[in-house]
């Protein structure tokens, strides 16, 4: 692992080896592709998991791999941008809409659920 590579929580705190709860490899055809780390942040106490890219030997932290992992962040930002555009088009959800939706859910019957199940099965 390169010395300038560190794992950080969503809150920005550095994850130390003592914070790791579980670790393992994600393999495809018996070749390690990602390293799975589950950790509890020492600062915000959040329990999170992360997938880190690795090479065939299971080594983590090639700087190129870290940049490739950052590509997922770009896709996530694009998805959030799309959601923001949808929210701008439809507007905010009003309390009256939430109230009407809640009452509609409360009035659902078992026949409604059966019809929904039939519509979802191929």
Give a quick rundown of the structure:
By secondary structure, this protein is an alpha+beta fold. Helices cover 42% and strands 21% of the residues.
Task: Describe the protein's architecture and organization.
The protein is of the alpha+beta class and 122 residues long. The chain has one domain. It is built from 3 helices and 3 strands. It has helices spanning 63-90, 95-106, 110-120; strands spanning 20-28, 31-40, 47-53. The protein has a 3-stranded antiparallel β-sheet. A hairpin with a 6-residue loop joins strand 2 and strand 3. Residues 62-74 have low confidence and may be disordered.
List its traits.
about 120 residues; alpha+beta; three-stranded antiparallel sheet; 3 helices
Beta strands, count: 3
Q: Provide mean pLDDT, rounded.
A: 76
Quickly count the domains.
1
Structural class determined from secondary elements: alpha+beta
Query: What is the subunit arrangement here?
Result: single chain
**What ranges have pLDDT less than 50 throughout 5 or more consecutive residues?**
62-74
Instruction: Report the β-strand fraction as a percent range.
Output: 15-25%
Radius of gyration: 22 Å
Q: Distance between termini?
A: 47 Å
Global geometry: elongated
Largest sheet: 3 strands, antiparallel
Q: Which strand order do you get reading across the main beta sheet?
A: 1-2-3
SSE string, helix = H, strand = E?
EEEHHH
Helix content: 40-55%
User: DSSP helix count?
Assistant: 3
């Amino acid at each position: 692992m390169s010395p300038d590579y560190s794992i950080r929580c969503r809150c920005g705190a550095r994850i130390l080896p003592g914070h790791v709860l579980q670790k393992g490899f994600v393999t495809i055809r018996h070749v390690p592709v990602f390293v799975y780390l589950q950790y509890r942040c020492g600062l915000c106490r959040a329990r999170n998991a992360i997938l880190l890219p690795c090479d065939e030997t299971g080594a983590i932290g090639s700087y190129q791999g870290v940049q490739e992992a950052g590509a997922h962040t770009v896709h996530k930002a694009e998805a959030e941008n799309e959601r923001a555009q949808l929210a701008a088009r439809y507007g905010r959800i009003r309390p009256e809409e939430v109230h009407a939706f809640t009452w509609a859910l409360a009035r659902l019957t078992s026949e409604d659920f059966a019809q929904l199940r039939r519509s979802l099965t191929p």
